[in-house]
Recover the amino acids of this structure.
């Protein structure tokens, strides 16, 4: 897997993204057409209509990103509505599709790390892209996610990084769509500005954003249309899976986690405590080994095909990411971390 480097005005970045990944974007639309039908019983045309309600929210909270979305559509020779719908896919399918994902931050020996597995439908495996973006008048950033989407998991040249855990809930209100909010966080100049995306702009549907910075700060944000739940580090670490934890969030939002979420959180908490005690030396290989853990399979951190699950719930680990925010280095393993031997290492020059 390679990383594309795109720079310039937002429209230029969007057009290059759309043109280079047109085939993958089209396949992503096909995947989500099936997902919307499987999970919420609507086709792509109905999904496009559903996505229209989020346009005014983006226009209020992050209007500049619409130029990039329009560029993606032009580059891929698609309608803007298709790209808008793709970037609002979490909100459209939020009542049923929670996905997986195990994420954690850890600070040891003066270095701030972020790591996570992204678990999702296996038909999206080959539609994953790594992008290094240099937008004019905004921080340079690296994002690993799905072709045609403006952001997912990544870091920027200010030493700020973000991970994502999906939350299944029927809540949807006012705020930025999840993936648009992630991009705004990745364009933040500092940690406080990143937190304002959750506390001021707000996020229209529940999710967990794990935000960390090279200065050693890290916070779990259980976002939703109200004030987010905050999870501060314990023993230098924050971990999260796919259920709400903070009372600030649970008193406002009802979630419906799958059976594997709590066992995975218990396991990653144990691994952080046992393998990375305070004073331990940390490197990327150590963190990838934790992401490759199979304890409690099939309800494990590294997730594999499980024929005992209903077809629409068979989530698998599609990539693993480890970020050293002090070095501005992101290392990606495409596919399951227990199987993938090749790593893509991306590094940004500190701003």
């Amino acid at each position: 897997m390679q990383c594309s480097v795109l720079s310039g005005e937002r429209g230029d970045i969007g057009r290059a993204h759309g043109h280079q990944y047109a085939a993958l974007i089209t396949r992503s639309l096909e995947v989500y057409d099936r997902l919307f039908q499987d999970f919420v019983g609507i086709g792509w045309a109905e999904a496009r209509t559903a996505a229209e309600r989020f346009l005014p929210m983006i226009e209020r909270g992050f209007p500049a990103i619409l130029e990039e979305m329009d560029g993606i559509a032009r580059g891929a020779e698609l309608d803007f509505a298709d790209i808008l719908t793709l970037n609002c896919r979490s909100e459209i399918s939020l009542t049923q599709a929670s996905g997986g994902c195990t994420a954690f931050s850890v600070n040891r020996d003066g270095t701030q790390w972020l790591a996570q597995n992204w678990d999702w439908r296996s038909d999206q495996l080959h539609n994953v892209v790594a992008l290094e973006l240099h937008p004019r008048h905004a921080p340079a950033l690296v994002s690993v996610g799905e072709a045609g989407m403006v952001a997912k998991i990544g870091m920027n040249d200010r030493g700020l990084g973000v991970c994502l855990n999906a939350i299944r809930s029927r809540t949807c209100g006012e705020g930025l769509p999840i993936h648009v909010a992630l991009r705004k966080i990745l364009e933040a100049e500092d940690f406080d500005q990143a937190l304002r995306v959750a506390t001021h702009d707000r996020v229209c549907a529940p999710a967990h954003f794990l935000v960390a910075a090279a200065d050693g700060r890290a916070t779990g944000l259980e976002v939703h249309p109200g004030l987010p739940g905050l999870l501060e580090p314990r023993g230098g670490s924050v971990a999260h899976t796919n259920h709400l934890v903070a009372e600030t969030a649970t008193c406002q939002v009802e979630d419906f986690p799958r059976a594997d979420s709590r066992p995975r959180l218990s396991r990653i908490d144990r691994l952080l405590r046992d393998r990375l005690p305070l004073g331990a030396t940390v490197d990327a290989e150590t963190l990838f080994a934790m992401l490759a853990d199979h304890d409690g399979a099939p309800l494990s951190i590294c997730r594999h095909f499980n024929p005992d699950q209903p077809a629409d719930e068979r989530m698998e680990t599609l990539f693993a990411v480890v970020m050293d925010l002090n070095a501005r280095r992101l290392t990606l393993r495409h596919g399951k971390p227990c199987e993938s031997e090749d790593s893509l290492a991306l590094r940004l020059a500190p701003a």
Notes: The CA atoms of residues 61 and 201 lie 6 Å apart. The two ends are 26 Å apart (CA to CA). The chain has one domain: 3-7+98-347.
